[in-house]
Amino acid sequence: MAAIGNRGTVTEAAGFDPEADAQRLRGAMKGAGTDEAAVVDVLSHRTIAQRQRIKEAFKQAVGKDLADELSSELSGNFRSVVLGLLMLAPVYDAYELRNAMKGAGTEEACLVDILASRTNAEIKTINAFYKKEYGKDLEDAVCGDTSGMFQRVLVSLLTAGRDESDKVDEAQAVLDAKEIYEAGEARWGTDEVKFLTVLCVRNQNHLLRVFQEYQKISGRDIEDSIKREMSGCLEDVFLAIVKCMRNKPAFFAERLYKSMKGLGTTDTVLIRIMVARAEIDMLDIKAQFLKMYGKTLYSFIKGDTSGDYRKILLELCGGE
């Protein structure tokens, strides 16, 4: 029943009663109109595990699926958040990946956000759920929808084979830095495979050493070199890997900031991160956001959204 992380804004509700919650949601959908405030109140203050219990209690009491019922009652971005909250974490990731590749065009940002930031165990579970839900291997779906070196990086991440130990091989770190330098800055054209081999395979501590060494050898930060050497989706995915290795909450804070800054809001990104990280590391993401942009994530969401959509996001954000 516990939350999936310990740095989330959404924590286990005390005195949890799934039957009472199910009845409250049922009441919220009875008659004309919907009591959105009740939906927000219940779902934004329960963990994913608790929401699963509410879904079971609802089905038992009403003989209908809670997600289906809410889906027909709600609309727009608010509905997207609510339906996301009702899913298990890997199911939600699989669902988002599937949506990113459905129909014409691909939302590459979604593939990058999810695959560059999840652990081996998370990726393995996403692979399994994807196959179960959609009857197709996620790798096949990705290969059918992407191409070139970008595709190869995603496929490498999908194998969930990254070293997750914390040991640093000093000599190897120096060699890795040298090889990346020689594959990029030091030559005409870029040998992207070298970047892939190091960035998609090595563990976090080792990579942090590689980045330090790289700075020494090239006089540049690895992120600057990637921006100079690559472009498009390939640049995005390599930068995302580096940023997640350095500071995952900061990576998500930057993605949230960019989703709201300027004209219009990239709601898909905003929703995906708020739903997926609410009970993992939202407290750290908020702290990084404030540190990086001098404003609270709460105030940004408040100024950029409206209605019930704003209300539920602010609850997930957990106050200023």
Task: Indicate the proportion of strand residues.
Answer: under 5%
Distance between the termini: 27 Å
Computed structural class: mainly alpha
Query: Can you name the CATH architecture of the largest domain?
Result: Orthogonal Bundle
Shape: elongated
* Helix fraction bin: over 70%
Count structural domains: 4
What's the number of extended β-strand segments?
0
CATH superfamily of the largest domain: Annexin
Largest sheet: none
GO cellular component, one term: vesicle membrane
Protein name: Annexin
GO molecular function: calcium ion binding; calcium-dependent phospholipid binding; phosphatidylserine binding
Keywords: Annexin, Calcium, Calcium/phospholipid-binding, Repeat
Secondary structure blueprint with pairings:
Elements: H1 18-28, H2 36-43, H3 48-62, H4 66-73, H5 76-85, H6 89-101, H7 108-117, H8 120-134, H9 138-145, H10 148-158, H11 170-183, H12 192-201, H13 204-218, H14 222-229, H15 232-260, H16 267-277, H17 282-293, H18 297-304, H19 307-317
Helix pairs in contact: 1-2, 1-3, 2-19, 5-16, 5-19, 6-7, 6-8, 7-15, 9-10, 10-12, 10-15, 11-12, 11-13, 14-15, 15-16, 15-17, 15-18, 18-19
Please describe the structure with a list of short key phrases separated by commas or semicolons.
single chain; 320 residues; mainly alpha; Annexin V, domain 1; 19 helices; elongated
Describe this structure in words.
This protein is an all-alpha fold and 320 residues long. It has four domains: 18-74, Annexin V, domain 1; 89-159, Annexin V, domain 1 (Orthogonal Bundle); 170-246, Annexin V, domain 1 (Orthogonal Bundle); 248-317, Annexin (Annexin V, domain 1). The chain has helices at 18-28, 36-43, 48-62, 66-73, 76-85, 89-101, 108-117, 120-134, 138-145, 148-158, 170-183, 192-201, 204-218, 222-229, 232-260, 267-277, 282-293, 297-304, 307-317. Helix 7 crosses helix 15 (232-260). It is elongated, with a radius of gyration of 21 Å. The model has no long low-confidence stretch (mean pLDDT 94).
